[in-house]
Amino acid sequence: MAAQIFLHIKLPLLGSENMRFVFLVAILLVLVGFPAYAEMYKWVDEKGTVHFTDDLSKIPEKYRSSSESQKTLKEGPVPKKEEKPVSIPTPQKPSEPVGFEIPIKIKGEVAVAEVILNKQEKHEFIVDTGASFTKISWKMAEELRITIDENTPFIPIATASDVVLNPLVTLKSLSVEKAEVENVDVTIGDLPGYEGGLLGNSFLYKFKVVLDPINGKMTLFSLQEEPSPDRPGGYGKDYWVSRFRFYHRILERLKHMKASYEKRDLRSEKVSLNRVINAIRYFENQLNELDRKASFAIVPRNWRE
Questions:
Q1: How many C-beta neighbours within 10 Å does residue 57 have?
Q2: Short-list 85, 87, 90, 50, CA closest to 66
Q3: 69-73: long-range contacts, CB 8 A cutoff, minimum separation 24
Q4: Which 3 state secondary structure label does DSSP give 160?
Q5: What's the rounded Cα separation, in Å, for the pair 125 and 134?
Q6: What stretches of the chain adopt beta strand conformation (E)?
Q7: What is the 3-state composition of the chain as percent helix, strand, coil, each rounded to the nearest 5?
Q8: pLDDT-based confidence at 30, cuts 50/70/90?
Q9: Cα torsion 142, 146, 149, 155: sign
Q10: Which of 31, 191, 198, 233 makes the best surface tag, with the fewest CB within 10 Å?
Q11: Nearest to 139 by CA among 200, 196, 193
């Protein structure tokens, strides 16, 4: 039996039918706003059993006077929770490596780029990814005030007709546009028919080189990334293997030349022998320094062979 709610509302005597309709709608809204209740009855029979019913007529007449009435809130439909769509995070793409774009000129069949030596001298260099060392001319060495003495290492350089010994010196810095490398080994010697220099792997070894002669540019991508277990020191296996092989290979060649000079034992070759000995000493020190850096970066031993 539903609870009864009495509202005493005096409708205005004056007004139109529309006004009366508005008041009736207001009454309905008020009634809807109240929660609905159901009346329950509790009664106990002669055996002491407790019974519940929502219909008074179902209680035997002799127990009606002793029954108890109580109101319970009717259960309405449980409002459904609005399910928000689960947003699945979009996997981030690995960041593209940023390279240094460098304008180049094509002269004949070679690419030429502008290079700055020790942050002061600017010259054009032929880009040669197959050359072991960067090469500067004697004129450039003079402009940079580089001195050659009895302690300067010399290394063998193969020419079209012979193998010659060129001095090896270290520049404080070498930069091509914004790509810069410090402590770059360069040889000194003039290129036949060309006043510029040669940009070789003593600078380029730290980059992946992409030449685009059609668009007149070269892009250098740094090989160094964030250090990780598979990239000790920020470099991958190929980098470490190639650096150790380079030093082992050049030392093997220098020691072979030293043995040849000593075997011939010619007075005219004494100077060349001393220069080669200095080069061996220099590259052994370089190899030891590389091995020290590799140990600090925890480079696997089989990458250093």
A1: 7
A2: 50
A3: 69/39, 69/40, 69/41, 69/42, 70/39, 70/40, 70/41, 70/42, 71/3, 71/37, 71/38, 71/39, 71/40, 72/37, 72/38, 72/40, 73/35, 73/36, 73/37, 73/38
A4: coil
A5: 9
A6: 37-44, 50-53, 68-73, 99-103, 105-107, 110-117, 121-127, 134-136, 154-158, 163-176, 179-188, 197-199, 207-212, 217-222
A7: 30, 30, 40
A8: very low
A9: negative
A10: 31
A11: 196
Separation of alpha carbons 121 and 144, rounded Å: 8
Evaluate whether 294 touches 304 at the Cβ level (below 8 Å). yes
Q: Give the predicted TM-score (pTM) of the model.
A: 0.66
Which residue reads 């007075």 in tokens?
267
On whether the CB atoms of residues 2 and 39 are closer than 8 A, the answer is yes
Q: Which residues of 143-169 are buried (b: 16+ CB within 10 A; e: fewer)?
A: ebebeeeeebbbbbbeeeeeeebbbbb
The structural domains of the chain, with segments of one domain joined by +, span: 17-73, 97-222, 232-305
Q: Which two tokens stand for residue 122?
A: 């600017």
DSSP 8-state secondary structure symbol assigned to residue 267: G
Torsion (CA) 128, 158, 276, 204 in degrees, nearest 10: 10
Sign of CA pseudo-dihedral 44, 49, 53, 55:
negative
Q: Which CATH class is domain 97-222?
A: mainly beta
Residue with tokens 């008020």: 30
